[in-house]
Amino acid sequence: MGTVLITGGTGALGKLIVERLRSTDHEIRVLSRRPGAGTHVGDLQTGDGVSEATAGADLIVHAATDFRRSGRHDLRQTENLLAAARDARHLLYVSIVGIDRLPLAYYQRKLACEALITESDIPHTILRATQFHELIAFILSTVDRWPLAPLPLDFRFQPVAAADVATRVAELIDGDPLGRAPDFGGPELFTLAQLTDTWRTATGRPCRTIRIPIPGRAARAYRAGYNTCPDHRDGKQTWADYLASNPATTYRLRG
Ligand SMILES: NC(=O)c1ccc[n+]([C@@H]2O[C@H](COP(=O)([O-])OP(=O)(O)OC[C@H]3O[C@@H](n4cnc5c(N)ncnc54)[C@H](OP(=O)(O)O)[C@@H]3O)[C@@H](O)[C@H]2O)c1
User: Fold this and answer.
1) Domain limits at 173?
2) Which of 139, 159, 198, 224 is the most exposed, having the fewest neighbouring CB atoms within 10 Å of its CB?
3) CA-based nearest residue to 63, from 1, 105, 119, 19
C-alpha cells in the first residue's frame, strides 16, 4: 500500500486510471488545475501546488498533457514534476507508440519528455500506447455530418481502448520500474477507411467520404503504420465493441 499521485487524472485516460487504482489499497491523489476536479489543485506549467501534491507520494503516474497546444508546454510540465518528485519510488509516464519515427511536433515533445525522465534519477517506467478508440471516435465525429467527409483514409491505426491502457498502467505502477515497458497496442490493425466503415455501421454516418492525399513525411509514416505495434496486440476491446458500448461517444479535447 502506498500513495499514488495521478497527473492528468481528470483526462480521458487518467480518469480511468484513477478508477482502476481506487479499487486497490493505495491512497489516491489527483492533480488538476481546476478546484474540485481532483484531490489537489496545481499547475504543472507554473509549478504551483505541485510539491504539495507530490509530498509523500511514493508512486506517480504522469498522464497530463497539453495536446491542444501540440504539447508545447509538456517539457516544462515534466521538468516541474520531476523536480518535485525526487523521493518517488516509481514514476510511470504514458507515451505514444512510434514517436521516434513520426516527425510531428507533439511527438517530438513527448520524446523529449521521455528523455528527461530516462536521464533523471527517479526509478521509472515509460509505457507507449497506440491511439485510443476515443481519439479515432473524436476525429470521425468531427466530420461525419458533413455531406462529404474528407479523411486520410489510407492512414493505418491499431486503436486501443483507453480502459485497457488504464488497466495496464495500474498493473505496471505496482510493479518494479522497467525503464521502457513493452509497447501496448489494440487487438486489431485497420486503415482509417476500415475504421470509418465500422463507424458508419454503428452511427449511420458519414454518407460519403473522400480520401485526402496528405503530403509529407509524417503522412507517409502513418500510411506505413509506424504508429502501430503489430507484435503487441494487447488491448482486449475491439473498435466494434467499443462503438457498441459507447453509441453516442465523444472525445473532448482538454487543455
Ligand atoms: N489520446 C490518445 O490517443 C493517446 C494515445 C497514446 C498515448 N496518449 C497519452 O496518454 C496521456 C493522456 O492523454 P489523454 O488523451 O487522456 O489526455 P487529455 O484527455 O487531453 O487530458 C489531459 C490532462 O492533462 C491535465 N493537464 C494539462 N495541462 C496541465 C497542467 N498545466 N497542470 C496540471 N494538469 C494538466 C488535464 O488536467 P486539468 O484540465 O484537470 O487540469 C487533463 O487531466 C498523454 O500523455 C497522451 O500523450 C494518448
Assistant:
1) 3-245
2) 224
3) 19
Give 93 Cα–ligand 1 centroid separation in angstroms.
11
Domain CATH for 24: 3.40.50.720
- For the chain, 255 residues long, give each residue's pLDDT as a single digit of tens: 799 999 999 999 999 999 999 999 999 999 999 999 999 999 999 999 999 999 999 999 999 999 888 899 999 999 999 999 988 999 999 999 999 999 999 999 999 999 999 999 999 999 999 999 999 999 999 999 999 999 999 999 999 999 999 999 999 999 999 999 999 999 999 999 999 999 999 999 999 999 999 999 999 999 999 999 999 999 999 999 999 997 555 544 443
In a domain, 251, yes or no: no
Q: Domain total for the chain?
A: 1
Shortest-distance Cα residue to atom 4 of ligand 1: 131
What pTM, to 2 d.p., does this model score? 0.96
Residue among 41, 62, 65 whose CB has most ligand 1 atoms within 8 A, to mutate: 65
Q: What CA–CA distance (Å, rounded) separates 155 from 192?
A: 6
Ligand 1, atom nearest to 135 Cα: 3
Flag whether 250 is in a domain. no
* Ligand 1 pocket by Cβ (under 6 Å): 7-8, 10-14, 31-34, 37, 43-45, 63-67, 77, 94, 96, 110, 129, 131-132, 135, 254
Domain presence at residue 255: no
CA dist list (Å): 8 to 37, 113, 143: 11, 15, 27
Give nearest CA residue, ligand 1 atom 18: 11
Q: How many other CB atoms sit within 10 Å of the CB of residue 99? A: 21
